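Narrative of activities, Objective 1.

The group set out to show that a structural description can be obtained from nothing but a protein's sequence at a throughput compatible with the screening campaign. Below is one input-output pair from the validation batch, recorded exactly as produced.
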Amino acid sequence: MTTPVALSIAGSDSSGGAGIQADLKTFAALSVYGASAITALTAQNTRGVSAIHPVPPEFVTAQLDAVFADLAVGAVKTGMLGGRATIHALAAAFKRWSPPFVVIDPVMVATSGDRLLPADAVDALRTKLIPLAAIITPNLPEAAVLLSEPVAVGDAAIESQGRRLLSLGCCHVLIKGGHGHGSESIDYLISANRTVPLGGPRFATQNTHGTGCSLSAAIAAGLAKGEDMETAVRNAKAFISAAIASADRFAVGHGHGPVHHFHRYY
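Output recorded for this entry:
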């Protein structure tokens, strides 16, 4: 019996709602063994990020080499990367180890509004890492930043931005609609020959800390288990929707609380 393994490469969230902690919870909830490589430590809670301590790129590389040399990693996901040098280190490691699937969540800003990726690192993300990705999962503002364009409004504009993101070299783009408006939150899965709108209810809750991290981790978990891309994305969206719908079962912190990763179990 082969145990599916997924690797999260991201920052640590001291409040446990996002980053590495959210990813490992997601992997466990979806019956996948989770490994991690930490890119940064954050002093963080539900109200915001008060300090960031980057991990030296050489040590990020050491973590990656240790995991890839021993574990049969079925999929990788990236989150907060900290800076340009770390992005270059990841690109080199991926070329060296050739993980089957790379899921890139281009984390730039926390739910609280705190910036998590320096402006000078965006170009490195765009040119060095995205071309290696099986899928990238930007929200509407992140898609706009990657393209140096205004935030897209309307189905046609969102699909158009998705196709321009495909031209950066990735295989699939999932543009998340959580920053949109209306009763439905629509994500758009865009590949070379089709666009699949994935609708879901928009929940009235402030407990959305870690939603992007958890969605991309859930996609990686599905890919590690052998699901095709569309199935992995559909299952991931169903998982995160249920986690958001159950988030108000928690009373954690005084700001944007976490989603409920283990809603299926308690």
